[in-house]
Structure formats: C-alpha cells, structure tokens
Write a structure and sequence with these properties.
Elements (H helix, E strand, L loop, with lengths): L2 H4 L5 H7 L6 H15 L8 H7 L26 H7 L11 H18 L9 H9 L14 H7 L1
Amino acid sequence: MEETEVCIPIPRDLVRRLGVEPHTSTKATKFTEAYLRNCIQQPTRLDVKSMVTHKAVILGYRRPKKDKTKKKSKKAKGLNAQQKRKMKVFQIKPDHQRYELFLPLHELWRQYIIDLCGGLKPTSNPQFVQQKLLKADFHGAIVTGKFSSKDKQQKC
C-alpha cells in the first residue's frame, strides 16, 4: 500500500455523515510530539540531544534484587515421630498382616534380583557377586531368622 493512499484526507460527505472533524497533518504532528514528550522521561539538567551525542547513555536497568525474606521452595515436610505415633502409622491391623498379602511384593523382589544378577555368569568372581548382593535392597525378600533377641533373653 502506498503512503499516499494512507494519508489521503477523508471525503467531505463522509465527514458529514460520521460527524467527525478531520485532523490536519500539523495537528497530528503536534499531538504526537506532545504525547512523546509526556511519555519520555527527560533529565532535568541536560538536554537529550547533547546527552546522546556526547556521552554513552545508560538506560534505567537495574538488576532485580533478591528477596531476602523469601524462603526456600516449600517442600512437603514429613511427619515427626510424635505425629506418627499419634496417627498410629506403624500399627498395622491384624487383617492386613496376612502372609498372602506380601507374596506379590516377594515376586517383585525376585524379579529385581534376577535383573540385578542378570549379567552374572556362573564363572563370575564370587567377590563381585557378593558386592552386588550386599548393595541389593531386601524389601520383599523372604528372610528366615535362626534366633531372635527374645530367644537370647529367654536362654539366659
């Protein structure tokens, strides 16, 4: 689109119908200059032209200050021991202590151990196998004890 098409005056019959007053280019220029003067903050002592031509202009950028009162990211805090006792977190109901309920966990553990020892060969170094098993997680394993601390106390 050419500039002449943008800046053409509004036809008089359209001005009458719309009830608007066409702005002349001098009025528009004066309005634009006044608007820009109000929007741009000028230093009181220096003229903008002399400031730009003779010196480097530092724009009004400031680093955002770190908020000292701002706490670390809020993480969900766990319960302390007293709250756990009140809520009876570790007291499992007898109907939830059945052996059959823990068998699926044991199957998961067996799969974990198979995956852990999957790269081991029968000819592997026993110390290597021992290190792998020492670092393994035994949650879900079926562990049988020979005696307990209660047995020791009863024998003494």
